[in-house]
Amino acid sequence: MPHDLIIPAHPAPPSQPLPHPLALTRAGLSGFPSPAQDYEGRTLDLNERLVKHPSATFFMSVTGDSMVRLGIHEGDLLLVDRAIDPRPGHILVALVDGEIIVKRYELLGNRPHLCSGNPRYAPIPLDNLDCQVWGVVRSVIHEYPV
């Protein structure tokens, strides 16, 4: 994963609230609520929702297919937070032996490993590797073709 795919987050992102209707679903009832019922005045700011530590957050584009079963695809944009302490189960961006990778941190037999979301790639044991964690993935932005 090339370094030019790293985009720092704005240290003080401007507020940009967008319309955010309250989505209601009804199971087992006939009839539908009015689409405008809970729409008025409700907004959502993605910076406020997703960026918890602005000065420690960056965006990164994904290349490759090693995380497809975990919902991370080629071309997706990751929101990565350096302020979160990595724990097993977290998806990390790390520099391993000079290569930037995205993998899930797991303990296998009480030994730390970086695991992919694709069975074609074996877990990477971290025992004897030079590994520098860059941050924990907080969000994945996946765009659909239009």
From TrEMBL:
It is an enzyme of class 2 (transferase). One of its GO terms (molecular function) is DNA-directed DNA polymerase activity. The keyword Transferase applies. It comes from the Bacteria. Its EC number is 2.7.7.7. Residues 31-137 form the Peptidase S24/S26A/S26B/S26C domain. Keywords: Autocatalytic cleavage, DNA damage, DNA repair, Hydrolase, Nucleotidyltransferase, SOS response, Transferase. Belongs to the peptidase S24 family. This is Translesion error-prone DNA polymerase V autoproteolytic subunit. It comes from Halomonas kalidii.
